[in-house]
Amino acid sequence: MLSDQQLLRIPGPTPIPPSVQRAMSQPMIGHRGQETKELLKSIKPKLKPIFGTEQDVAIITGSGTAGLEAAVVNTVTPGDEVLVIATGAFGERFVKIADAYQIKTHRYDVEWGEAVTPGAIKEYLTKYPAIKAVFATFCETSTGVLNPVQELAKVVHSHSDALFIVDGVSCIGGVECKMDEWGIDLLVTGSQKAMMLPAGLTFIAASDRAWKTIEQNEQPRFYLGLKKYRDNLEKDSTPFTPALSLLLGLEQVLTLMNEEGLEQIHERHRLMMEMTRAAFRALDIPLLTSDIAASPTVTAIKPADFEAEALRRVLKEEFGLAVAGGQQHMKGEIFRIGHMGYCSPADVLQTISIVEISLRKIGKDIELGKGTQAAQEIYLG
Amino acid sequence: MLSDQQLLRIPGPTPIPPSVQRAMSQPMIGHRGQETKELLKSIKPKLKPIFGTEQDVAIITGSGTAGLEAAVVNTVTPGDEVLVIATGAFGERFVKIADAYQIKTHRYDVEWGEAVTPGAIKEYLTKYPAIKAVFATFCETSTGVLNPVQELAKVVHSHSDALFIVDGVSCIGGVECKMDEWGIDLLVTGSQKAMMLPAGLTFIAASDRAWKTIEQNEQPRFYLGLKKYRDNLEKDSTPFTPALSLLLGLEQVLTLMNEEGLEQIHERHRLMMEMTRAAFRALDIPLLTSDIAASPTVTAIKPADFEAEALRRVLKEEFGLAVAGGQQHMKGEIFRIGHMGYCSPADVLQTISIVEISLRKIGKDIELGKGTQAAQEIYLG
After folding, report:
1. Is B79 exposed, middle or buried (0-12, 13-18, 19+ CB in 10 A)?
2. Can you give the residue ranges of the Aminotransferase class V domain (chains A, B) (predicted)?
3. Which CATH number is associated with domain A7-14+262-380?
4. Which B positions 4-43 lie with beta carbon below 8 A of chain A?
5. Is B107 annotated as belonging to a binding site?
6. What is the ipTM of this complex?
7. Peptide linkage before A239 cis (omega within 30 of 0)
8. What CATH architecture is A18-258?
9. What pLDDT, in 10s, does the model give residues A51-106?
10. How do residues A298-344 score in pLDDT, each as one tens digit?
11. Which of B267, B353, B359 is the mutation pick for testing A, counting most A CBs within 10 A?
């Protein structure tokens, strides 16, 4: 194998664009100086359209989980009732965080690989009128499901006064999101997925309604107190030392995203999803999710007659290509291909053509080139 | 198109491995200090097997042409007769250099796309016994031809006392070379091809016979005087300021090459050539060279019924994929795909699948996936 070649097709972290890598290699600057002020001033307006909000987007130095925890500790207090819609491993993370804070958690489980049906949530909200917040996962990384957050928001708001809080870690930047218009009260994402950065930053925006709750909320918190971030951001500053190299990279990511155009980026992600799905369909290998539930950022494949782990091994050892396995009870049952952020249709074609070879290597009798061809046809439209 | 993605598939420069890029980003060190001495000491023995020689390989800061000029000005003087075997644009470069120094040049032209026949050279040498040096191109970058230098060396040595001087710029590192065993008297290569570095270094080794000529040669020269490089290299030094970041990168390139293994590297290049050729054959698109004359590092394609330049334009604009056009009279007639250095079979598959899409985009009616499939079959053997 060619030394030093790593093809990273897991659902985050994703490869870093060369110009972003260069931006992150700039010499350190003081985080209380004028240069960092200018940096934050430049970044601030450019994050808003990615979230689809007029609100400032707070930048917390931490991983996505820190952002999810911030969403919890700023909005609810022990004994409060919340509903967590768990469609996979990352939905469960909300449950664990809420449990850690003695929040009374109603857990609505959806079978892994399926999206939540907004109607079901309606019943829940009617039955438990004390629910103060509904937590949902936009893209469930563990299954490649994109939940219908726009419809969920509508249901939540028409049947309760609960805040609608969304984990958008593995899709924001890669899919359309209209936080304000749809009625998302709190939206969280991370830096290492469609945002094309290494992990280390989490982004969070809140609606006016959510800010009211946050301001009144008395849950003890310090580092994750959102008000601090908002008040500092107003002065183009951060409350604590920021991961400065990531901010330098973020500035360049936003330049690249602006160059390509948000709509074009969303279209590219949708195209990569369709190419990937068409390829596996052509090879007669089952997909975990239905078309309607599929995320433009990650695709889970559920082999019927070969070992997912055997395939992953060949891909890694023979080509340096990393795809993800299944999590929890899906371990060994599925494998997941990330196609988000710094990933192109050309990369998807490369992945598929390598998967085809590797399938043959593990003894699965497929027609070479058939998946590639199907993906090419989708590209040509 | 995904911003910032460049797929570089021209026959040099080639992409730089990430670890080499990192090595080149190290802080500068003094080129007369102990650290550079250690660096050269470590590099020196590792270059030899790549050339297939027990001689030290001189490292000159300059492009490949500087190496070719060094080959001329160290071995012949005005009025000397030489034979240049010109199989393409880079064979002609030897002619131009020799002309600049008033060397009496016999030029043996071979049709572009064909390799030289050693038998023809035999006749030449018998007819012109005064010929002091024979210049040949190992891989002719402009056509993707690999000339039979082993056989040429045999013919030169059995029919003359001439030095056999070889331009190996676009293949050394990617193909087997046994300089000593085959009888190459002077071998030159550059850094930006199969050596996986940016341009800026040229490497040159000379046989004992060649060194005798070099020592006696009175052609005026300064920077390109090979004796200076040899004498300094013996003391792990360079006669002039070296391109130090490239030396730091070279050290890492040699580590990577050692990790993969020279034989495996040659096998990878042969495989990439065969995959590329099989793909275009399957698509019924003519190759410029015959199998026997084909180079493992670059493939020239000669379309019969579409515009090479139109295809190149779509590849670049739609996918950021750069392939080379034709040079001189081949301009517009051919396009050339580089598959050398930091390039893997996975990259070849990506290139082919993109070429297939782009062919359809310019209106050429091909069966999608057919070329990819042929390349996959070659990979699986």
Report:
1. exposed
2. 28-328
3. 3.90.1150.10
4. 4-7, 17-20, 25
5. no
6. 0.90
7. no
8. 3-Layer(aba) Sandwich (3.40)
9. 999 999 999 999 999 999 999 999 999 999 999 999 999 889 999 999 999 999 99
10. 999 999 999 999 999 999 999 999 999 999 999 999 999 999 999 99
11. B353
